[in-house]
Amino acid sequence: xxxxxxxxxxxxxxxxxxxxxxxxxxxxxxxxxxxxxxxxxxxxxxxxxxxxxxxxxxxxxxxxxxxxxxxxxxxxxxxxxxxxxxxxxxxxxxxxxxxxxxxxxxxxxxxxxxxxxxxxxxxxxxxxxxxxxxxxxxxxxxxxxxxxxxxxxxxxxxxxxxxxxxxxxxxxxxxxxxxxxxxxxxxxxxxxxxxxxxxxxxxxxxxxxxxxxxxxxxxxxxxxxxxxxxxxxxxxxxxxxxxxxxxxxxxxxxxxxxxxxxxxxxxxxxxxxxxxxxxxxxxxxxxxxxxxxxxxxxxxxxxxxxxxxxxxxxxxxxxxxxxxxxxxxxxxxxxxxxxxxxxxxxxxxxxxxxxxxxxxxxxxxxxxxxxxxxxxxxxxxxx
Length: 383
Description:
The mean pLDDT is 85. Helix 3 runs antiparallel to helix 15 (273-306), helix 9 packs antiparallel against helix 10 (170-187) and helix 13 (235-246) packs across helix 15. The longest helix is centred in the C-terminal third of the chain and has 34 residues, at 273-306. 70% of the residues lie in helices and 3% in strands. The chain has a three-stranded antiparallel sheet with strand order 1-2-3, covered by helices on one side. The chain has one domain (16-370). It is mostly helical.
């Protein structure tokens, strides 16, 4: 009891400078290392030049780094209070995309902000995690056992997932559902309730399949048999496997990848950036990158274990799961384990929205770490 009071008093008396030194600087170095890997890969993807990918990547990371450190100093109590306001803003951006969004490659996913093409679906997953963590914070077992208590958060997950699916963006829609499910699980929702939801999804899956676009159905068919259309729908994954295999143990060397530099490898600066790395630096280089990614993800779950508040724990679990799903889907996609879904590898792939939203998530994760001893009280009284 005395120890807890000391922690609370220390937290209340913490100034900005002290919070600054609480930032996990080793973690910041890990993120810088990942961004450096991205710069090297994008330099190669640009044909051995900083333009047009690597220089923009460095500028975006620099801006994102400053933003991340500023967010890390924001009191986690303020983040909780603004959770649902942020969620509403995210839904507003998704609606704006549906009405007036920029169309590219057959999808309406972006808002043109001049120097940046904002993809609200990336931002929405972060805002959803914050909102769900706020909802479940301090909920008693009695409330968790009441099915009506779970209806609002279920709707909160379904609305953005549906709006993202309609863009169309099946990959991000599925990640949104899985991130929401991770927060539900961490909050203590019983497994039989997940089984009911999965059963319902299985029943509507055939209907959902009929609603897919032709290219999305082709991706599923190609995943099952890429060689059935080697010059069409199966081309991407076949070329990716060739590049991965040709890298061998040590790789062909920096700027020496034939699949990438002879333009056999599609979207080498975004979706297939990991394939380019594996071709040039081999299995050793690929495993080193995976080690960095695993360390970044592992830190997020460590923050969850060390957080005093339920809000901090759920926030960390949701954000770490979100980044894990990006990594898992991208790596599984380029190795042919799952259908190609157009999901980038944040901090490594080219893309402004993915970079800035990833840094926003890392900033919130660091805020949960900096304020891990904060007492947020119970949200029961506020409901």
